[in-house]
Amino acid sequence: MTRVRFHSGDQLPLEMHKVRIVQKLILPPVERRLEAVTEAGNNTFLLQNAEVFLDMLTDSGTNAMSDRQQAAMLMADDSYAGSATYTRLVTVLKDIFGMDYFLPVHQGRAAEHILSQVLVTEGSVVPMNFHFTTTKAHIVLRGGAVEELLTPAGLEVTSTEPFKGNIDIPALRKLAAERGTAGIPFVRVELGTNLIGGQPVSLANIREVREVCDEFGLLLVADASLLADNLWFIKTREAEFADASLRDITRLIADQCDILYFSARKVGCVRGGGICIRSQELHDRMRPLVPLYEGFLTYGGMSVREMEAMAVGLEETMDLDMVSQGPQFIRYMVDELDRRGVPVITPAGGLGCHVDAMRFLDHVPQEQYPAGALASAAFIAGGIRGMERGTLSEQREPDGTERLAQMELLRLALPRRVFTLSQVRYAIDRMDWLYQNRHLVGGLRFVEEPDVLRFFYGRLAPVSDWQEQLVAAFRRDFGDSL
After folding, report:
1. What pLDDT score was predicted for residue 314?
2. Do the domains at 2-59+320-478 and 67-316 have one common CATH topology?
3. Residue 316 to residue 337: CA distance in whole angstroms
4. What pLDDT digit, counting tens, does each position of 253-287 carry?
5. Strands 101-105 and 273-277
6. pLDDT on residue 8
7. Interval 67-94: pLDDT, tens
8. Which residue in the list 53, 86, 101, 132 is annotated as catalytic?
9. Which end of the chain is more exposed for a tag (fewer CB within 10 A), N or C?
10. Best CA proximity match to 201, nearest among 212, 190, 211
11. How many CB atoms lie within 10 A of CB 288?
């Protein structure tokens, strides 16, 4: 992916790949879209994919694999033990991250589970730039707590700050001094921060975090699931590394960490994950949980075909053309929506375009889940499946009161090498139309509310007939068009 100037004067992101396998898409009529989202309980996780036109729910497990990854899958060694596939993957991981030990797991949250089981104790606190839903859940289930120490700029919706995912270093040092080594099992840095708009972390900040960890004898753990995007931002926004290769930047990041875990559904464009570990002692403490919860040590719940593709996918993540597509498509979408007055998180981050539902639907109370309502409205307006990242993704307080999120975001993910520019422009057009008709959109209320991770499978209903009004407005403006 590169950015070129066309003769017309336009500057557009240009795909540095060609499409060789296609999958048919269907765009149901707006009336059917309303029926589908109603059947799904206004939860985009519960929509049937056959009814979705543009699946912007996540980039997890939905990225397109390369021809080299597809070919590598034919080389898989199915041996239960001593698999050559495992050896090839470990060789690649050691070369990229420089850590001697590796434990395979079926995806990123399995890594979080093992880390929490081994390191988190009752009453302990895990400082981090910002939580991710499953990370926090695993820590809390072990009796621990998370302490978000995001730099103050991180929660500024509209900003020019290039690294809004940085950890607040004075706050980290203060907490470390108060709690001590025994009270802090590890410091977690998410590269970059999923729930606040995919905002990146600078390498300078990672080095400063390492200094605090060394000062107080703390472990530094990195969640590298969104590493690809973060590499792009370090190279393009951090002047010191403008001429550095992605491989060199990756090694500089890994050298600061004691443990680095990842979901390959994101960073490797396959389904799987892993934990890279610097010390044998930590490895030996975590190793028994892999065969107990995941699978044998040479596959960890993954198929060997996925492991072969992962090895290639991680190597391809060191390619600037591959890494640049996501951030450049996202930037294009963010810039276009911003130009039209649609409230979005700026500057553009990784993972996807993040629409600020708090400003978009400023008439909808947070208790009525504006980001969730906007996700339902986006599906009705365009067959676009996004993901709520706001109060709906939180968990209620022990007394049953609602924990209001610091941000209400609709995430429109852009999986790598999946969408064309015309599809992105379609999404921009429908979100623009929706913003012009935002007064029609109302809130949601729970009708089925699970106790844990309710955003995955809870069901909601509109608080009024606003969805029917939205369909009527669509027909008024678009006629018989889909």
Report:
1. 96
2. no
3. 30
4. 999 999 999 999 899 989 999 999 999 999 999 99
5. antiparallel
6. 72
7. 999 999 999 998 888 889 999 999 999 9
8. 132
9. C
10. 190
11. 13
End-to-end CA distance of the chain: 31
Check if 101 is active-site. no
- The class of domain 67-316 in CATH terms is alpha beta
Report the distance separating Cα 226 and Cα 436, nearest Å: 33
Q: Is 80 a catalytic residue?
A: yes
Task: Kindly tell me the number of DSSP H helices and DSSP E strands found in the chain.
Answer: 19, 16
- The residue extents of the domains of the chain are 2-59+320-478, 67-316
Dig out the tokens for 473 from the structure: 């407005």
The pLDDT value recorded for residue 3 is 60
Backbone φ/ψ region at 272: left (φ over 0), alpha (ψ -120 to 50), beta:
left
Contacts 24+ apart (CB under 8 A), 174-182: 175/125, 175/127, 175/147, 175/149, 176/127, 176/212, 176/215, 176/216, 176/218, 177/216, 179/125, 180/216, 181/216, 181/217, 181/218
Q: Per residue in 59-69, pLDDT tens?
A: 887 888 899 99
Tokens standing for residue 252: 């500089």
The pLDDT score that the predictor gives to residue 2 is 56
Catalytic annotation present for 132: yes
Catalytic residue among 389, 417, 430, 454: 389
Q: Could you tell me the two tokens for 57?
A: 């729910």
Q: Which of 88, 142, 210, 266 is flagged as catalytic? A: 266
DSSP characters for 338-374? HHTT--B-BS--SSEEEEEHHHHTTTS-GGG-HHHHH
- Provide the CATH number for the domain formed by 2-59+320-478 in this structure: 3.90.1150.10
DSSP 60: S
Say what the pTM is. 0.91
